[in-house]
């Protein structure tokens, strides 16, 4: 391990960055250095620009996939190497704004009915019923289910924040059925490796299989259930601020984007066309004479 890599690791640990973020940053900087076959200390804005061009034109990465690279290089040069560089030295491509595809209530029902395994069905039901990220679902512990207060405790979710979400009475019944069948002790959903929870990849695979069995044509991932949770709450009249707290969003603007996909809220708004006066009926024309 080089001294620079170790220094960057210490800087990330001191700032309590998430483990996934630390691994991603180290991977991005390592790829950057290998491409130019030099230490990042010897590279500068011109190499950063060339690297981003390479990622976009040669590797064909989408703008959203370039974001982690920018974040890693900004941290390395501004924090670890203390270079006084501006944002222009780390050009961030504009990402196209795409709305998530939302499953209807009927599609959610069909999807759950297509899951054979009780454990897999319970995991995905928790993701929808509580609006959890897949990383939050797999790291739930048995003690996080508080049936007395009817809440689920999410420990160290995104941005290292704890929060509480609702525990649906119907979900509690399903969790009890699952508990009597599996008897989990520590992790609510243990994985194949003793002492470790189920992996996100295993949950994603279960989601893909269920989608195929359901016959639903819309794309479905574990995160689709979280999108559906927020949208269905909004369509039911739940306040956006309350949804923000349940989702664990840092900014209200992130939650507000669901206003664009809540069809019963947005598309149910009367069109001004309906306010126009109805035109007088056109008088019937006499039939044209027949000549043949």
TrEMBL record:
Q: Where is the Tyr recombinase domain?
A: 98-271
Q: Which keywords belong to this entry?
A: DNA integration, DNA recombination, DNA-binding
- Source domain of life: Bacteria
The answer, when asked if Metal-binding is one of the entry's keywords, is no
Q: Which InterPro entries match?
A: CB, DNA_brk_join_enz, Integrase-like_cat_sf, Integrase_catalytic, Integrase_recombinase_N, Integrase_SAM-like_N, Tyrosine_recombinase_XerCD
The record places domain Core-binding (CB) at 1-81
Q: Which PROSITE patterns match?
A: CB, TYR_RECOMBINASE
The family annotation for this protein states: Belongs to the 'phage' integrase family.
Q: Which PANTHER family match?
A: PHAGE INTEGRASE-RELATED, PROPHAGE INTEGRASE INTD-RELATED
Q: What is this protein called?
A: Tyrosine-type recombinase/integrase
Protein species of origin: Paraburkholderia podalyriae
């Amino acid at each position: 391990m080089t001294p620079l890599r170790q220094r960057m690791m210490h800087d990330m640990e001191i700032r309590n960055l998430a483990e996934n973020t630390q691994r991603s940053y180290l991977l991005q900087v390592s790829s950057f250095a290998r491409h130019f076959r030099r230490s990042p200390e010897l590279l500068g804005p011109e190499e950063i620009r060339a690297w981003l061009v390479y990622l976009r034109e040669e590797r064909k990465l989408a703008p959203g996939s370039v974001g982690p690279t920018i974040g890693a290089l900004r941290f390395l040069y501004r924090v670890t190497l203390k270079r006084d560089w501006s944002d222009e030295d780390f050009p961030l491509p504009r990402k196209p704004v795409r709305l998530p595809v939302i499953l209807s209530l009927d599609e959610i029902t069909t999807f759950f009915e297509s899951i054979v395994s009780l454990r897999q069905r319970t995991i995905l039901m928790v993701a929808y019923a509580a609006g959890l990220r897949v990383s939050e679902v797999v790291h739930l512990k048995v003690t996080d289910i508080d049936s007395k207060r009817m809440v689920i405790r999410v420990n160290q979710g995104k941005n290292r924040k704890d929060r509480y979400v609702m525990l649906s009475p119907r979900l509690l019944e399903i969790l009890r059925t699952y508990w009597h069948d599996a008897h989990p002790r520590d992790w609510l959903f243990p994985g194949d490796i003793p002492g470790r929870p189920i992996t996100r990849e295993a949950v994603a695979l279960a989601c893909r299989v269920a989608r195929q069995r359901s016959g639903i044509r819309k794309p479905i991932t574990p995160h689709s259930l979280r999108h559906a949770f927020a949208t269905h709450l909004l369509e039911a009249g739940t306040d956006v601020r309350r949804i923000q707290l349940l989702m664990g969003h840092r900014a209200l603007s992130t939650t507000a984007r669901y206003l664009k996909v809540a069809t019963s809220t947005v598309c149910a708004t009367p069109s001004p066309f309906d306010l126009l006066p109805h035109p007088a009926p056109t008088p019937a024309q006499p039939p044209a004479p027949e000549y043949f």
